[in-house]
From TrEMBL:
GO cellular component, one term: cytoplasmic dynein complex
Organism (species): Lipotes vexillifer
Alphabetized InterPro entries for the sequence: DYNC2LI1 (IPR040045), Dynein_light_int_chain (IPR022780), P-loop_NTPase (IPR027417)
Keyword set includes rRNA-binding: no
Organism phylogeny: Eukaryota, Metazoa, Chordata, Craniata, Vertebrata
Name of protein: Cytoplasmic dynein 2 light intermediate chain 1
Subcellular location: Cytoplasm, Cytoskeleton, Cilium axoneme; Cytoplasm, Cytoskeleton, Cilium basal body; Cytoplasm, Cytoskeleton, Microtubule organizing center, Centrosome
Domain of life, source organism: Eukaryota
Length: 351
């Protein structure tokens, strides 16, 4: 009998949790899920491997991948389990977002959005498309869960708002993401060599977006010190370890801002001349920041942003023998279609 694949094990684990009465009273279990989404080749796999202390070279993520980690809590106490999901392909595989986020996993689910700082023109559309698609699905799942367990949904909403102090001046001006969100800017080692004005716009924009969504924000690179800080943040999501309270908002250093500790007054207004801001027609603060950002970093065309939808045709996965067989099968399929079409036409004529 063949051994189970990692995907089959993950699917069975999700189904098992669902059948074990996970609709209970909303109390958290020792299992949490962290879903990494973001820029293609942005460093998501590297971060996951570092968090799990796995010394192995990262491989390109094909579609949706799963792994897990364990952490001992004490003697004779069951280990905490963290489920790590990673979406490959940047924004080209948005449909797969719905697979790991279910009504059974939602209450212990977190999102980590990794954005490639070295590609500022792709940054906003990547962020916008992924967050919109994720939020749309999470809202649907929360609505479904609310019909069965309204208390659990209420507790989730209260928990999201708990990151911000009740007397915070921005409470009425933000719209927290429905589940915990961390935004990571990767490849800081390249970003730090950007022009000062460009770094200022990117830093202020990401601080605004993170603050608006009630998210934590931090920059990282291959630096061991930065990776250790990121590891601490991911461990907090995955295992409930104490959250860091440190903050760095200096654009000349790697940003590190914990959710709820920033403010609109500290971030300031969008970096655009006062006489130009009135010319930007926007219906919301988020739209205004988008227009300002895209004025300096115009997005590439949709065609260049979207990756190949069929991974089998992606050049990075090229294998000559497999590709030759694929071409042969495609030709056989086309021949079959043509012969089938002729057969149906003949049948119609005979009838």
């Amino acid at each position: 009998m063949p051994s189970e694949t990692l995907w089959e094990i993950a699917t069975a684990e999700v189904e098992k949790r669902g059948s074990n009465g996970s609709e209970g009273n909303g109390v958290e279990t020792g299992e949490k899920s962290v879903f990494f989404i973001g820029s293609k080749n942005g460093g998501k796999t590297t971060i996951i491997l570092r968090c799990l202390d796995r010394d192995e070279p990262p491989k390109p993520t094909l579609a949706l991948e799963y792994t897990y980690g364990r952490r001992a809590k004490g003697h004779n106490i069951p280990k905490d389990i963290a489920h790590f999901w990673e979406l490959g392909g940047g924004t080209s595989l948005l449909d797969l977002i719905s697979i790991p986020i279910t009504s059974d996993t939602l209450r212990t689910f977190s999102i980590v959005l990794v954005l490639d700082l070295s590609k500022p023109n792709d940054l906003w559309p990547t962020m916008e498309n992924l967050l919109q698609a994720t939020k749309l699905h999470v809202d649907k799942v929360m609505m479904k869960l609310g019909k069965k367990n309204a208390k659990a949904v209420s507790e989730m909403r209260q928990k999201i708002w708990s990151n911000m102090q009740k007397d915070h001046p921005d409470r009425e001006l933000i719209d927290p993401f429905p589940i915990p969100l961390v935004i990571i800017g990767s490849k800081y080692d390249i970003f730090q060599d950007f022009d000062s004005e460009k770094r200022k716009v990117i830093c202020k924009t990401l601080r605004f977006v993170a603050h608006y969504y009630g998210a934590s924000l931090m920059f990282t690179s291959k630096s061991e010190a930065l990776l250790l800080k990121i590891r601490g943040v991911i461990n907090q999501l995955a295992f409930g370890i104490d959250k860091s309270k440190s903050t760095c908002v200096d654009q000349n250093k790697p940003l590190f801002v914990t959710a709820g500790l920033d403010s609109l007054s500290q971030i300031g207004s969008p970096p655009v001349p006062d006489n130009d801001i009135g010319k930007l027609h926007a219906h919301s603060p988020m739209e205004l920041w988008k227009k300002v950002y895209e004025k300096l970093f115009p997005p590439k065309s949709i065609n260049t942003l979207k990756d190949v939808r069929d991974p089998a045709r992606d050049p990075q996965y090229a294998e000559s023998e497999v590709d030759e067989m694929r071409i042969q099968k495609d030709q056989e399929l086309e021949q079959y279609k043509r012969s089938s079409s002729k057969s149906w036409k003949q049948i119609e004529l005979d009838s």
